[in-house]
Amino acid sequence: VALESKDKLNRRTLFMGASMAAMFAVLGGRMRYLQVDQADTFRLLADENRISIRLLPPARGLIQDRNGKLIAGNEQNYRVLITREAAGDVELVLQRLASLIPLTEADISQTLDKVMSLNPFVPVTVAERLSWADFSNIAVNSPALPGVVPEVGQSRHYPLDFDFAHVVGYVGPVSEKDLEGIDNPDPLLMIPKFQIGKIGVEKWMEQDLRGAAGIKRIEVNSAGRVMRELDREEGIPGVDIRLTIDTEVQNFAQARLGAESAAVVVMDVTTGDLVCCASSPSFDPNLFVRGISHTDYQALTDNDHRPLANKTVSGAYPPGSTFKMVTALAALTAGVTTPETKVRCPGYIEFAGRRFHCWKRAGHGTVRLERSLAESCDVYYYDMAQKVGIDKIAEMG
User: Fold this and answer.
1) 14: which residues sit within 8 A by CB, 6+ positions away?
2) Is 375:364 a contact under the CB 8 Å cutoff?
3) CB 47: neighbour CB atoms within 10 A?
4) Separation of alpha carbons 73 and 157, rounded Å
5) What are phi and psi of 35, to 5 degrees?
6) 96, 145 in Cβ contact below 8 A?
7) Residues with catalytic annotation?
8) Could you tell me if 237 and 211 are in contact, meaning their C-beta atoms sit under 8 angstroms apart?
């Protein structure tokens, strides 16, 4: 019996040893598979966890006058961003941030709404145009601010402000309206608070001025704090644009228009260049770049002289006596009159049972073409217009 029990014990020991050896073999094989065969795969996954790729907005193209004087440029802008994925409790982080820089409850609420509405990996601008003291304060306290990144960017600046507000226009944040009808928008347009041209040359030449985005790869720790920049590929700066406008002529006209509701256009008739294109009253486009206050905007919209309207291109005004040249050319081209044709001006003309007066109630008497232009006789052109007809006038116009 004792010998039989001993044999059973030896068999059990052998079986258990073999089982344990098999188990260790399986574990060893699995460890080798994970650590050696799949090393590259897991290294990539680890890198994706600690490496973040971010877009680099390119420098916006400059706008210059005909002589190369700067009209629209870029200035350094200290700002702070937050990323939801790295921040964790975004509201708590924003409250901490508010103890370091001026942030109102409204600012915090607005930023929180924006952060929660976007992809968790998309950085959102919390504040910009910070002072160096505020900017450095955030950098020093970054260990207690997960997901917060202080950054130096660029902001649009208009050194000649009022003189070129209507011609150059201004930039502002991308809105839902700006994205309407665009199937595959530029990734830059999806960056919160990224600014594009809203009116004027800034809008008309947006594609050229914007440039193309660059990218940078940064290493972050488990708290989302940026540890180092691994590499970057700079974007392509926007194209610099030179206008035909002369700043001195523009300033001369704008200064003399003052606060009147008026406009001046000066053209080089030999080349067709617009040398001056002034609309008055004007406004400071820098207010819109920084985020215009309700008070300032209301002051502009309530002004009966309509400072926001570019009267040189967007207004509809009767051409008045300036159109007499078109009527005269149409009549001469059609052969219904000659420079020596005489028209009698008694001070009015009868048409369709109505009497249309000349500006000179006493009349100009007998008028030929040269005198009709020199003294702007209305009756002469009432008569010519009837003879040549609207179609010929429209064609000449």
Assistant:
1) none
2) yes
3) 12
4) 5
5) -85, -25
6) yes
7) 321
8) yes
Sequence-separated (6 or more) residues with CB below 8 Å from residue 388: 327, 330, 331, 334, 336, 337
CA–CA distance, 261 with 252 (Å, rounded to integer): 16
Residue 363 CB neighbour total at 10 angstroms: 16
CA–CA distance, 24 with 279 (Å, rounded to integer): 86
Q: Each residue's pLDDT tens digit in the chain (397 positions)?
A: 555 665 666 777 777 777 788 888 888 877 877 777 777 666 655 555 567 777 788 889 999 999 999 999 998 888 888 888 778 888 888 888 888 888 888 888 888 888 888 777 777 888 888 888 888 888 888 888 888 888 888 889 999 989 999 999 999 888 888 888 777 788 888 776 788 999 999 999 999 999 988 887 777 665 555 667 777 888 899 999 999 999 999 999 999 999 999 999 999 999 999 999 999 999 999 999 878 888 999 999 999 999 999 999 887 888 899 999 999 999 999 999 999 999 999 999 998 999 999 999 999 999 999 999 999 999 999 999 999 999 999 999 9
CA distance 390 to 397: 10
Give alpha helix (H) positions in the chain: 2-32, 39-50, 84-87, 90-98, 105-117, 132-140, 165-168, 176-179, 200-204, 206-210, 247-257, 286-290, 294-302, 324-334, 369-374, 378-388, 390-396
At 36, the amino acid letter reads V
Q: For residue 207, which amino acid is it?
A: Q
Residue count of the chain, please give it: 397
> How far apart are alpha carbons 397 and 389 in whole angstroms?
13
